[in-house]
Amino acid sequence: MSKQTKFSNFVKGRSPSNKKNEKLNVFVDHLQNTRDSKDKIRGKTGIVYDERMVEHQCLWDPNYPECPERFTRVLERCREYGLAQRCVEIQPRKATQDELLKLHTPDRIELLKGTDGSPDAEALEAISSGYDAIYIHPSTNELALLAAGSTVEMVDALLDGKIQNGMAVIRPPGHHAMKSEYCGYCFFNNVAVAAQHALDNKGVEKILIVDWDVHHGQATQQMFYEDPRVLYFSVHRYEHGAFWPNLRESDFHYIGSGAGKGFNVNVPLNKTKMGNADYLAIWHQLLLPLAYEFQPELIIVSAGYDAALGCFEGEMEITPACYSHLTSSLMGLAQGKLAVVLEGGYCLKSLAEGAALTLRTLLGDPCPVIAKIEQPCQSIQESILSAIYVLRPMWKCLQFQGRFDASKVGSQKEGKHFVPSVTFEGSDIKQTFFATRNCYPVQNNETIDLLDQRLDKLIKETSLAVPKHRVCFIYDERMALHRNINEPGHPERPARITSIYQKLMEFGVLERCHRLDARDADREELLWLHQADYIDEIAATAGKKQSTLNQLERQYGSIFICPETYQAALLSAGSSLQIVESILSGESRSGIGVVRPPGHHAECDEAYGFCFFNNTALAAKYAIEIHHLERILIVDWDVHHGNGIQRMFEEDPRVLYISLHRFDIFPFKPEESDCSVVGSGSGAGYTVNIAWPKRGMGDTEYLAAFQQIIMPIAYQYNPQLVLVAAGFDAAQGDPLGGCKITPEGYGQMTNMLSSLAQGRVAILLEGGYNLDSISHSMTMCAKALLGDPLPSPRIEPLNPAAISTIKQVVSHLLPYWSSLCFHVDLPEGNVLPPCEVTKKPLSIEEQLEKLQLESSGATSQETETIVEGTVLLLEACGVTESAPPKTLQEFLLLPENVEAMKEGTLFSVVPLSWCPHIEGHVLPDDNVANPWSLQTPCSCCQDKSENWVCLSCYQVNCGRFVKGHMKEHHNESGHSLVLSFSDLSIWCYECDSYVDNRAFYSAKNRLHVEKFGEPLPPSFSG
Length: 1022
Hints:
The protein has 1022 residues and is an alpha/beta fold. It has 32 helices and 27 strands. Helix 11 (320-328) runs parallel beside helix 12, helix 19 crosses helix 20 (615-627) and helix 24 runs parallel beside helix 25. It starts with 6 loop residues before the first helix and ends in a 10-residue tail after the last helix.
């Protein structure tokens, strides 16, 4: 058989460029980040809580969901698993006045303080009824201060290096607490206060807040809506606004404003019963790409567990174990600085289990296996694609969806086309009083029992075993005896493994690993994949003269042989099996094999590409034959295609083989390495070739391949073991690869794979020929397996060729893997009106029926408010009647108004409850440079007939029906919010909408007193 014989064939096409006038590249030491991480090893996990937090409870409704048992059950479960005992306890403390005033108004702080220790339950309930879904207990102020302060304290401990990560088991929760309004069980915004503290006092410039509570953290969104230093990412039940808190701004197209545009991400869940597959898709398609591009210095999770299976508020089906995976994927970012802060969760069993498994992951224990996932549901596909559509102009990572002209597509969904749209099915009616009892969903006993049984089954079947050794390691100097006697400078040289060994020693890695003894692979093991005559041929080389071996070299091509080659090849293969045995026997969680000669090019009957026996393939076969595994994932990130591994398993669905390689270099077999090659027979779909068409791919491109292809497929496959054919010849500086992956890039890929198969990951050395690059890269992989904090990868704009390759791979694999369902075309340009929605209309009959139901269920206090409001509305419109209607319902049921509604001549303008231009723009109405009153004329034309006052500078100008001087003032000054002298309405020029909010009360009240001689009722304070 005639074969290539020269090493030059292996590096064909790598000659230096002869182009003239090339740009001068500035040298950057790509290994410096790795060197800097030498002494950064896994730190402690902190926990903060205060036993007094059980005191906060509802005095008038013993069944209220936000109950003390939420706190006690979480701590109990963490202690039952021995988790809390392994943590560093952070001392709780109260938030200071200065910390709270950064984000909350003094009056709300003082109001809650005034309830401290109050014995008057009736008064506390009355105050509570003025806010949406809260109750106040005599201890609430003290405990809300503790919850906020303890969160700040944990973030301080993180940023001061006292702990690596931590969990705050606190209550009351915080993410609904607005600047001047309590809301949704929340009083002070614990996470937001801690984030602001980090920005102001700890030198942090970029924070990622991940809010996985099933309710939208609207208050956190409001507080950072214009701040590009905070990337706020929320996944929440929405149902097009029909689910609480029923806000338009919870939808996908609210992405921030001003400098913060693009830094607010909402993923609305528009149906119930979403599960693990849906959340993992959100992580892979949106959160992780954005997070890696953003590169945060701190991550805070608003960790509500009300999307967990069993929770009656969320009605979702996230399993407790899935929270471990959601957490693990974040731990490679921000050098491991991750704070998890308890928010909601009201099914006590799934809350406790989910929180405990989250803490277990923070402590470094392996992620439990979750059941094989199915295709993400159609609804979440639409939400993810809609979010990508509005965000991709701001983010370089979101470029995998094509583009099309929406005007040429007849329907919203036509083939591969998707047109985002906005529908709002909620209500803009802002209540002034809220129910305080029996105001929550209740499950029937049958449903509770069924969910309880499902949870018990899940908990029982979830293995939480932790092997004795986190990482095992194998190395034997005898493998260095294999060498090229004729060409001492050959890149596949003994120093490859000795340099790795020395670097692992230098970084203190080996002393933290379990050392295994190397062994030979026996003949029976080799015969699993190699032919007997081929094994005999290689065995016959042992001890032969070099001149005889030179002839055999020429027969095979792209290899070299010396008298010690056979022994080294046996050790390399046998040591790979030894690592797998240590992992599958439960002795070690993961392992590293510093072995040579490499193996992934070796065929069943021939040596090829420096390889003799196929180490990684034999390791997979060992797991199948000895341990009876059914699903093994092999990720081959060597820059050369692993032709040998692919051929050995191309018809075997028990092995999912994924190769990332350059298509244009050795082994020059396009019929095997092209993206279109996906396996055959029963193995169709189980071969994945991510074939780069050119040099230059780096961290960005490889991480994109992981997020878009490898991790979605891997989770759907659900492997029992992960093997990495770890060639480091795609590393920057490698003489053969021409790519530029950094050591930290390899560490990040290792970290991602570690969430699979309960952390059973074996890294087996293949290629890599720059000694500095391979030694640092393998060391970073080892540190990732040990749980050390990882440096950030080098993120650059995606190579267009990589985008094309990834899209091509997905197109070939989509028939086999339903998780790859997001590569569709999205419209060019903007197809969504700014903050406008298609509201589902209600018929007149439905509107009246709704009013009748609301009125009949109103308390006497609420009825009085409606009456008062009706009178005020009529007076504001210039209407006076001796006997006004008693309720708003009666007002609308007047014959003339019913007729007007039918004719479409009676309108109700519903203002927004909040807009992003309130914070920092509305100034106090006293002590301003422009004195003003109801009689103040327009500052430009002196007209008094229809004027408005600017709420930023209090200049008075006329409206559009006069000469439009207020609009001109907005255009010149940028001031957006103005108050009408006529009807006390507030208009925002930027939002193009009416707005009503408590922040406007002072200015509105001033006008109301002047117009009507009495204060504006508190119920009309916005």
